[in-house]
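Title: Prediction job returns without error message
Component: structure pipeline
Severity: low
Priority: P3
Assignee: unassigned

Description:
Job completed but the reporter wants confirmation the result is attached to the right record. Sequence as submitted:
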Amino acid sequence: MNEQEFLANRFEAHRTRLKAVAYRMLGSLGEADDAVQEAWIRLSRTDTSEVENLGGWLTTVVGRVCLDMLRSRTARREDPLEAHLPDPIVSHADRVDPEYEVLVADSVGLALLVVLESLNPAERLAFVLHDMFGVPFDEIAPIVGRSPIAARQLASRARRRVRGAAPVPDPDLTLQRQVVDAFQAAARAGDFGALVAVLDPDVVLRADRGAIPEGGWTEIHGAAAVAGQASTFQRFASAYSTQPALVNGAAGLVNTVEGQPMSVISFAIANGKIVAIDILADPARLRRLHLAVLDA
């Protein structure tokens, strides 16, 4: 084995964790892969003889790449939507592979990623690297071009916003599935009262149907308003085939027509009630997702 092959093997040992960092930073699986690939390119061109902690070195490189990508995304204003859902990570309801577990560890549900989208790039980097991956502020500071104290303040501001806006989900998957099953039953029946019964009073529903004018973004707040979509839920429940799935580690659904995905639905459940429903129904993005749950 030559030196380049040895380096490649060392890099591969860190790839899944690096993708987890990039996914939390970018909310895009494709861009996360791009960021990890860029880290490999930089590694292959660097003399690492004096790098004592390769994993830490690579984590900061990926953080720097992601920060540049977020800043470029903001500067270009390339997204025609005012808001959009991050890419969901979908797996079989009863079978989880190791890479999936790493990517969705720490309850990184879509509801949390939506809140991370609202942070500015430097806040998001400081929060993700420190709070989620334990990177010291001394190492974060040079990435954002600030002092360690200022980096700590960035993470603190981000933490306050996340705690105030991102629900803490119930970790019991059996309970989650029971609540989702009750939601499905009420949806099929178009039962307003039964829907209200499984919804938290402050529930939020977000639906991303893609770029305007073909699609658009919908956001509805409150149990009565969300349950007011009962006729829509009923229509979809009768028109689609529904398959249970894990979406970012939580109970979710994949709706299909003749085997083609029409939507991925994620539920955030706390205290036995649905506190958030996130629906990705953007045809272009659904085609790019690897929906292993539909295999077979």
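Comment from assignee: result matches the submitted record. The first strand starts at residue 90 and ends at 92.
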